[in-house]
Design goal:
about 190 residues, elongated
Length: about 190
């Protein structure tokens, strides 16, 4: 067992600890997580720890961990996406939107907005996803995959005319941007 420094906060987790340069053995399948003196956890460790803490029901601690990850890794979308997804699962859509707005505002290009749209589409929140994909194409109108993703969201919202325009724009920018087997006539015939 690893000796615990006096006064160290402890969290129980069922995933191995990945603090840089440290391996922390646990009992059975569980591991004890604690801050290692002088060791700043990397982004993957912070995100993994936040997921475990959220699963244990401590949303305040998970928010704190992800907030630290966002502050410590500016420009990285993953902690913002994780925090927004957690807020959605906690039925806090306004908090999720605020996190995504800050993440997108601090980004240099459309990738953060596109990633936010993908996360929202995965949660079947297509109206919000469409808004984020629109932000992505507004920032980078020459990026075909953003137009394709916008078209997918528009199609999910039963807006075939807008989807057709977005797919046309994607195809004009990059002819191979539509997936193999994409059936354009099916879209027109079924919507």
């Amino acid at each position: 067992p690893v000796p615990m420094p006096p006064g160290s906060p402890r969290l129980r987790a069922c995933q191995p600890c990945v603090w840089p340069g440290k391996v922390l053995p646990g009992r059975g399948s569980c591991v004890t997580w604690f801050p290692v003196s002088g060791c700043r956890p990397g982004l993957p460790a912070q995100v993994a720890l936040a997921r475990v803490v959220e699963a244990q029901g401590d949303l305040a601690q998970a928010r704190s961990i992800l907030g630290s990850a966002i502050a410590g890794h500016p420009g990285e979308a993953e902690p913002g996406l994780r925090l927004a997804a957690m807020e959605l699962r906690a039925n806090q859509p306004a908090a999720a939107a605020e996190v995504l707005d800050r993440m997108i505002d601090s980004a240099r290009d459309g990738e953060a907005a596109n990633a936010a749209g993908m996360m929202l589409a995965d949660e079947n929140r297509f109206d919000e996803a469409r808004t984020r994909f629109r932000q992505a194409v507004d920032r980078e109108p020459e990026e075909a995959r953003y137009w394709f993703n916008l078209g997918q969201a528009q199609l999910a919202l039963a807006d075939p005319a807008a989807a057709s325009e977005s797919f046309s724009r994607a195809a004009s920018l990059e002819p191979d941007s539509l997936p193999v087997g994409f059936d354009w006539p099916w879209v027109d015939a079924h919507y």
